[in-house]
Design a protein that fits this description.
The complex is a heterodimer of chains A (330) and B (372). By secondary structure, chain A is mostly helical. Chain A has one domain: MetI-like (MetI-like fold, Orthogonal Bundle), CATH 1.10.3720. In chain A, 66% of the residues lie in helices and 0% in strands. The radius of gyration of chain A is 28 Å and the shape is elongated. The N terminus of chain A is likely disordered. The chains are: A mainly alpha (330), B alpha/beta (372). At the A-B interface, α1, α6, α9 and α10 of A face α3, α4, α6, α7 and α11 of B. Bound molecules: adenosine-5'-diphosphate, iron/sulfur cluster (SF4) and magnesium ion. The site of magnesium ion has 4 residues of chain B, from α2. Chain A: Pfam families: BPD_transp_1 (PF00528), OppC_N (PF12911). Chain A: Belongs to the binding-protein-dependent transport system permease family. Chain A: It is found in: Cell membrane.
Chain lengths: 330, 372
């Protein structure tokens, strides 16, 4: 007795036509990494490139502030009473645009006549220093907690996830004001505390993303393949998971920088930022509130500095996300 | 029963006598838990529920069964990516059932795995060179001519261009990616390779190429395979013996030719009649005699009492619900777990037609019957 269908299904061995290789030989052999592909996509995104360009410009300005100021500005705390109009109660600067002139590129502060240009470029230093350090802190904590929660899963994950929820629900601004106002107002100390607070409360944004990605990545077979050749957890986390997490981490760090800049500005605006005389955009803005009737430019300029900076980081971050997201086909 | 040449060759070149791998009573129950912090176990997925089989040195054991019947879990238990909840696994005479990760490190060289999904099994951020070289680095394998050279030799061995060393996985087709996975598995010169549906995700036209490659490599490198597939047609060409699984259990295990010619378990008979027939002149007849099972595979959380196949079996009787059929040898090397094995008469075309009608009439709600 023969089973019809079975016997005839034996010899499928006849090789079905050669598999068409995706890689044509003869082309250049160097592989195109996903990073290079993303860079090519990013280059085509004009807005993101403009944002990126501005970010680089701003970082250079912050680093070279003393040099730039020597050429284009005046010492930060130099008073220029001659630039203040004595006829109007000694408050607004001389001239229509807040005292903007060849000598004072962004005008002068009301009352004191200090150079606003130097305040802005040193303010960029403060702003970027605090925002970037806070972001760095957030990224480090976010990666450690996110990877641990995602990779180990189970109760570790439950614990860390609830902890992240808790932090995100925290009345942060109130806490920051309360804490900073009772601490000594020295510059270095304030900066450190602000970095700790801003970074210490923004890491769950990174942590959540990393956790979610790690949770799905650890189910991928390449993790199992690594384990099956004898790789330990340490190696799996650093060699298998982290390279795949680099893209989302980069994107979300870029996207929390602007919110950290705003946070720093808000704290300074509320009087609990870096202490004077260190320039800060937020404090300039809060200062300007008292004079906006006499000198609207004084409010507009630091406001614009914050706005353009935040916009640039957001545009760049969004562009980066689109470029790195394999599902976006731009 | 026409026997094609490769089959005869296979029998001649394989003196498969020693057992490389011995498995007895193997179980894997995944606990089902509730609650975030205080976890209560509310049940278990009985993914693998008591397997007894051996894999002989140099042979290919085909393992076949529907999706979800526990094939991958079995493969992961054998490679010890999972820890069994019961039973015993012996590799080369050593009990590896509960070896720790550290103890397993050395064993990893001998037991390797090829994964089902050629897209998810290669890290998209690593080059082919990094992927195939990883086992060598992790296990500190000396490479006299340099690691790059060693990797390129492996790529050549699996039919890939060694120049593509610096390419990334996304630049390859599915079949080529699967070859990369094979090269990685071969890097440590293992003795046993568990191939978990290595061709299921590939185009039919490419499947045969990859199976043939595995076949050639086996001859060249004296490999032993446990070859998992979800239908009987894929394993027929490459297997020496074939095991059929259903809902976490093995229902039949026999030498290849015996299994295809004289299946004894009703489930095997049904699976065999579902094998696609390439010969058009035979196809109609095969279609007519096809034994189609009604109903779904029951849940492994709460499997049927007695014989697990009884809810879909057209031969089921009261005994099948009451007693678990033992997995016994009914012919030399031919083990079956069934109270009422398929008889010769049932394997004739008439018998198959009868089985077909009977199978179609199995009430779909038998699963709901209270267990006795
Ligand atoms: N890690 C796990 N946790 C819980 N259940 C699992 C896990 N892995 C597999 N299962 C379950 O075990 C059963 C068998 O799965 P698997 O071995 O993957 O089957 P197959 O490979 O035959 O398709 C399925 O019901 C599946 O849902
Ligand atoms: S034991 Fe009974 S139910 Fe199970 S396969 Fe055999 S005849 Fe069918
Ligand atoms: Mg599977």
């Amino acid at each position: 007795m023969t089973l019809g269908p079975v016997t005839s299904s034996t010899d499928v061995a006849t090789p079905a036509g050669e598999e068409t290789p995706t890689i044509a030989d003869g082309k250049k052999i160097e592989g195109r990494s996903l990073g290079r592909i993303a860079w090519m996509r990013l280059k085509r995104d004009k807005l993101a490139m403009a944002g990126g360009g501005f970010i680089i410009f701003l970082i250079l300005v912050a680093i070279l502030a003393p040099l730039i100021n020597k050429v284009l500005g005046h010492p930060v705390n130099e008073y220029h009473q001659d630039k203040i109009d004595p006829n109007l109660g000694g408050i607004p600067p001389v001239g229509t645009w807040g005292g903007i002139s060849k000598d004072f590129l962004l005008g002068v502060q009301p009352v004191t006549g200090r150079d606003l240009f130097s305040q802005i470029i040193y303010g960029a230093q403060t702003s970027l220093l605090i925002a970037l350090l806070a972001t760095l802190l957030a990224v480090v904590i976010g990666i450690v907690v996110g990877v641990t929660a995602g990779y180990y899963g189970g109760w570790v994950d439950s614990l860390f996830s609830r902890f992240m929820d808790l932090i995100l629900a925290f009345p942060l601004i109130l806490f920051a004001i309360a804490l900073i106002s009772v601490l000594p107002p020295t510059k270095g100390f304030r900066i450190a505390v602000m970095v700790l607070i801003i970074g210490g409360f923004s890491w769950p944004y990174i942590g959540r993303i990393v956790r979610g990605q790690a949770l799905s990545l650890r189910e991928r077979e390449f993790v199992e393949a690594a384990r099956s050749v004898g790789a330990g957890s340490f190696r799996i986390i650093f060699r298998e998971l982290l390279p795949n997490l680099a893209a989302p981490i980069l994107v979300y760090s870029t996207l929390i920088i602007p919110s950290n800049i705003l946070f720093e500005a808000a704290l300074s605006f509320l009087g609990v930022g870096v202490p004077p005389p260190t320039p800060s955009w937020g404090r300039l803005l809060s200062d300007a509130v008292d004079y906006y009737e006499y000198d609207p430019m004084y409010m507009l300029i630091p406001g614009l500095a914050i706005f353009v900076t935040v916009l640039a980081f957001n545009l760049f971050g969004d562009g980066l996300r689109d470029a790195l997201d394999p599902k976006s086909n731009r | 029963m026409p026997t094609s040449t490769p089959q005869t060759e296979r029998a001649a070149t394989r003196p498969a006598t020693e057992n490389l791998l011995e498995v007895s009573g193997l179980e894997k129950h995944f606990p089902i838990t509730r609650g975030a912090f205080i976890r209560r176990t509310v049940g278990a997925v009985r993914a693998v529920d008591g397997l007894d089989f051996t894999v002989r040195t140099g042979e290919t054991l085909g393992v076949v069964g529907e999706s979800g019947c526990g094939k991958s879990t079995t493969g992961r238990l054998v490679t010890r990516l999972l820890e069994p909840t019961g039973g015993k696994i012996t590799f080369e005479g050593r009990d590896i059932t509960h070896m720790s990760v550290r103890q397993m490190r050395e064993l990893r060289r001998d037991v390797q795995m090829i994964f089902q999904d050629p897209y998810s099994s290669l890290n998209p951020r690593h080059t082919v060179g990094t992927i195939v070289g990883a086992p060598l680095r992790i296990q500190n394998i000396p490479t006299p001519k340099g690691q790059k050279r060693a990797v390129q030799d492996l790529l050549e061995l699996v039919g890939l261009n060694p120049e593509h060393y610096n390419r990334y996985p996304h630049e390859f087709s599915g079949g080529q990616r699967q070859r990369i996975g094979i090269a990685r598995a071969l890097a440590l010169r293992p003795k046993l390779i568990v191939c978990d549906e290595p061709v299921s995700a590939l185009d039919v036209s490419i499947q045969a190429q990859v199976v043939n490659l595995l076949d050639d490599l086996q001859r060249e490198l004296n490999l032993t395979y446990m070859f998992i597939a979800h239908d009987l047609s894929v394993v027929k060409h490459i297997s020496d013996r074939v095991a059929v699984m259903y809902l976490g259990k093995m229902v039949e295990l026999a030498p290849r030719d015996a299994l295809y010619a004289t299946p004894m378990h009703p489930y095997t008979l049904a699976l065999l009649s579902a094998v696609p027939v390439p010969d058009p002149s035979r196809r109609d007849k095969a279609q007519r005699e096809r034994v189609l099972l009604t109903g779904d595979v029951p849940s492994p959380i709460d499997p049927p009492s007695g014989c697990r196949f009884r809810t879909r079996c057209w031969k089921a009787q009261d005994k099948c619900a009451q007693e678990v059929p033992p997995f016994v040898e009914l012919a030399p090397g031919h083990r079956v777990a069934c109270h009422f094995p398929v008889t010769d008469a049932e394997r004739t075309p008439q018998g198959r037609m009868a089985a077909q009608h009977a199978a179609a009439e199995v009430p779909p709600d038998t699963a709901a019957e209270p267990a006795l």
